Amino acid sequence: MLSELRRSPYGRLVLGPVVVGAALSLTACSPEMLLPPALRPGAEVAPSPETVETPAETPEETPAESPVPMDPEDTDVFDIFLGDCLTEFGEDEDEISSVPKIDCAEPHVYEVYHVENIDESGDYPGQDSVSTSSQELCEAEFENFVGVDYYSSALYILPLFPTAAGWDAGDREVLCLIYEPDTDTSGTLAGSNR
Q: d(Cα 96, Cα 93) in Å, to the nearest integer?
C-alpha cells in the first residue's frame, strides 16, 4: 500500500506572502512601487486628454473644366419623349425610324415640346389626313409652350406622326418638334415669347 504524505494547505498560504515580502525587502521597494503611477498614494491624477478640433483642410478650387460636347446618339423614334432634343435628320424622308438625340444643353435643331395621340380609330385615314391632324395638335399647344401664337412667332413646328404601318400596329402618337430656322438652339425654347 502506498502512503501519501499530507501537508496542511496553511503552510502554502503563509509561504506566498513571506516570499513576496522577502523579495520586496531585497529590492528596497515598497508595495506601492508595484502599482501604476496613477494609483500610488498621493499621486496626482492627470486630466483626461481633451479633444481639440483642427480646422478641416479646404480643398483647393480647381478651375471648372468645360464639359466635352456630346455627340448625338441615334435613337429609335419610339424612345423619344417630351423635352428631348434632336439634331438635324432627314425630315424629307417618307419614313423615319431613328433620330439623332442630344442633350438639350448642347446646340440642337429640334426640341420635343408636346406629345399627344390622334384621337381616331379604324383604318389608316391617309397621310394627308394624319398630317393635317398632327399639324393642328401641334399648333394648338404652341402658344402654351412658347408664349405667343404660332402665326405671330418666328419659330416653326415639325410634327412627326405615324405611318400607315405604324397606324395598323396601333401607333397614334404625334411628336411636336419646335425649331428656329437657320440656327441651332442651346437650352429650351419654352417661354421664349418669339
A: 7
All residues at 6 or more sequence positions from 67 whose CB lies less than 8 Å from its CB, including other chains: none
The H-or-E segment that residue 85 falls in is: strand 85-86
* CA atoms lying within 13 Å on the CB side of residue 157: 29
Sign of the CA dihedral running 138, 140, 146, 151: positive
d(CA 173, CA 139): 15
Quick one: which of 120, 138, 140 has its CA closest to 129? 120
Helix (H, G, I), strand (E, B) or coil at 29: coil
Look at residue 67 in the predicted model and tell me its pLDDT. Answer: 55
pLDDT of res. 131: 96
Strand partners, 173: 117
Cell matching residue 189: 425654347
Cell of 85: 432634343
pTM > 0.85: yes or no? no
Mean pLDDT of residues grouped by 10 in the chain (194 residues)? 43 50 51 56 62 63 57 90 92 82 96 97 95 97 97 96 95 97 96 96
Residue with cell 385615314: 125
Cβ atoms of residues 130 and 161 within 8 Å: yes
